[in-house]
Design goal:
The protein is α+β, with helices and mostly antiparallel strands. The protein contains 10 helices and 6 strands. The chain folds into 3 domains: 47 residues, Ubiquitin-associated (UBA) domain (Helicase, Ruva Protein, domain 3, Orthogonal Bundle), CATH 1.10.8; 171 residues, Tetrahydropterin Synthase, Chain A (2-Layer Sandwich); 41 residues, GTP Cyclohydrolase I, Chain A, domain 1. The model has no long low-confidence stretch (mean pLDDT 91).
Length: 281
Amino acid sequence: MEISLDLVKKLREKTGAGITDSKKALIESNGDIEKAIEYLRKKGAATSKKRSDRIAKEGIVIAKSSEDRKEAAIVEINCETDFVAKSDAFVKLADKIVSEVLAYKGNEISQFLPVVQGIIDETTASVGEKIDFKRMSYLKTDDGYFSVYNHLGNKIASVVELSGSPDETGINLGNDIAMQVVALKPIVVSRNEISDDMIQKEKEIYKIQAINEGKNESIAEKIASNRVEKFFEENCLVDQEFVKEPGKSVTEILKEASQKNGSEYKIKRFIRYQLGETLES
């Protein structure tokens, strides 16, 4: 008999079983929900519902680019324990999902979820833990290229878009910049992305702090200016000290690569995911 999607959805809501298992149970039970539930219980498939109130706080963050480096994706998939996060089944799931995001070419997780819900349900049944697909980002460029970096352990990853030639020099540069993003956690590419209002607000806070510490007006002004500059150096990617060559800024590394290769390299944007981050509303 023909089994409707609404019937499958209703059974899944009652049991927490996967799409494939639910559909098979309904076929075997001629569309009778109660008999299908009994069928699933006998097969041991009606188990994931019991996990719905558990907390999935462990997991994997993984980034991937297309072969031509014109597209990239990054995802976070959560599970309950670090043991499962390191398992072959979960690692394969994360790799499969980030590849599917590249193929999907979109950013709407609610629309994309049905594409991978089946394999998520299968992995849930396999590892015996709740699995959440927390977030995803898909990026595409027409005039640049992407580099990605996945930190050992897959708890942090980044995607960086650069302009310039994606030859050996460009790829090595991109990989280094992506690692920089993971290591030093910048918030913007350059200070131009920070509004004047925000800069003045920060400066005023630093100035008041200095005055409260007993400094006079002119000294407090200088201290505030120095602290704002330090803020830029810590939070603006191009102003940060390069992790692989202390003493040089990221801007200097970009200039050196540009001069060496005769291709102007610039950082256009980046994304950094860290496991367990609270998503902005």
